[in-house]
Amino acid sequence: MDVILLQRVAKLGQMGEIVKVKDATPVTSFCPRARRLRANEANKARFEDQKAQLETQNLESKKEAEAMAGKLDGQQFVVIRSASDGGALYGSVTTRDIAESATAEGFTVDRKQVVLRGPIKDLGIHDVSVVLHPEVEATIEINVARSNEEAELQASGKSIQDLAAEEEAAAEFEIQGLFDDIGGAANDEDGDDN
Hints:
This protein is an alpha+beta fold and 194 residues long. It is built from five helices and nine strands; from the N terminus they run ββαβαββαββββαα. It has two domains: 2-66, Ribosomal Protein L9, domain 1 (3-Layer(aba) Sandwich); 73-164, Ribosomal Protein L9, domain 2. Residues 1-24 form the Ribosomal protein L9 domain.
C-alpha cells in the first residue's frame, strides 16, 4: 500500500513523501492514521490543497517542541525502586515511570514520547531520550535509587556500589582491629602468668 506522509516519520520519510508500506507491518502502528493518507488521486489532490496549512502547523508545533526541549534537556528525574545489594532492580523502570516522574516535576511528558535504548534494570543514572516532535528530541537523566538519600549521593557523582565497597572495607578494617586488640590482650595475660 502506498501512503502520503502528513508529517515526518523517523526511518520512513519526510512530510509529503509517498512511501510504500505493507498493510500488516509494524509501520502502520508507528505511523498512525493521523500521520498518513492512502496514496490515491483524491488524497494526493487533498494533500496538495492542505500542504501549506500542514507545513504551518508543523512549524508551530516544532517551535513549541523546541522551547520545551530547551527546558527539558539535561534535567534529572529521580525514580525510587527496590534493588538488591548488588544494585540490580527487582523489575525495571518503564517509560510510564519516567513520564510520571517528569510530570511530577512540572513537565508534560507522555510515555509514548519516552524512548528507551534498552531496559533499565540497575541502580544509577541513565540517559533517556524524549521525542517531543518528529524533528525535536531532548535527553534527560533518570536517577534510579533505593531512597532519596541514595539519589542525592548518585547525583553528586558517587556510585552506590562504590559506597557499599567502602563500607565493607571499613567494616573489615574495624573487625581486624578488634581481633588485633583481642590478640594483644591475650598476649598481655600470657605475660602476666610468667
